[in-house]
Amino acid sequence: MYIEKLKICNFRIIDKNGVELKFNKGINAIIGANNIGKTAIIDAIRIATSICDYKKNIYFSMSDFHINKNGTRETTAQIDVFLSDVPENLIEIWDPENPTKGEYHIRFRIEKNKQGEDKIKYETWGGKYEGNNLSGEFFDTIKLSYLNALRNVENDLYPSRNSKIGNLVSSLFVDESEKNSLLSEIFNANKEILSNEKITKAKKIINTNLSEIEKINSQRIELNFIDPKFENVTSSLKTLFIPKWTFVDNEEIKKFITDNNLNDYKLENNDGFFVDVERLLEENEIDSLIKNKLLELQHFSLEIYQN
């Protein structure tokens, strides 16, 4: 499922005439000069795909309503999302004339409360006609990972709760069974490493000393690497830099590259013979013996700050 068309009206710089954007399946780029609404389009998509309270990563605020040339704030704004390759079970948004298509709509409005204060209200509906309410299950089918510009690469790619890499990986896990499978692997790996004799001995030393210090109600500690929760696993992912060209002094690999006319993957200069190992392995079927020798060459990586 992907967004095929987007309509936006009365949102920030976009006036009541609105804009309509058409997208292709795959990669799309929005290009234009400053201050013409590129960020508004991206934020409209973010708002439209995380409108449920428990999924919100961006909020529609009073300042998001368009202000016209007379300086008057509009009182309504609307985002219409048109989808293609819609799964059969998403009947809430179906186009009856073409079930592979679907649409949903979000309208924001300014409404006064009992105290006379302006408050933002919104309604959503699926399909062509208002009144067809959308469920939380529908929004659960939408996977959005917003990766904003890297202002400080070292900080922005550092493992953390709001890690961009963690957010991207999380969006690729479709259901709970996939998450549980990963956690099971983490748990078993932790268990095996923690059974190491030296780690077990360290834990025993700590607990023995705690027992001596606290004769009554003695506390005990347990050692672990990562708390086996999905969010902790993804937030601990670290980004490393691997140089594209790997130095090769293995004559067998050099001969293999030359004999098989894989010149696009090699670089020769005064410093020696280099190979783009990752691209070579990705784009070619290679004998396992040579493959393992190529992988052994990638024996180091660099921290982001070392790039």
Main traits of this protein?
single chain, 307 residues, alpha+beta, 3-stranded antiparallel β-sheet, 10 helices, 11 strands, extended
Summarize the biggest pleated sheet: 6 strands, antiparallel
Low-pLDDT sequence parts: none
* SS-based class: alpha+beta
Helix content: 25-40%
Radius of gyration: 27 Å
Mean pLDDT: 86
Strand content: 15-25%
Shape category: extended
Q: Count of DSSP E strands?
A: 11
What is the number of helices? 10
Helix and strand string, N-terminal first?
A: EEHEEEEHHHHHHEEHEEHHE
Amino- and carboxy-terminal Cα gap:
37 Å
Topology readout:
Layout: E1 2-9, E2 19-22, H1 38-49, E3 76-84, E4 94-95, E5 98-112, E6 118-126, H2 136-140, H3 153-156, H4 164-172, H5 176-194, H6 197-213, H7 230-235, E7 240-241, E8 246-248, H8 251-259, E9 266-269, E10 272-275, H9 277-283, H10 288-297, E11 302-303
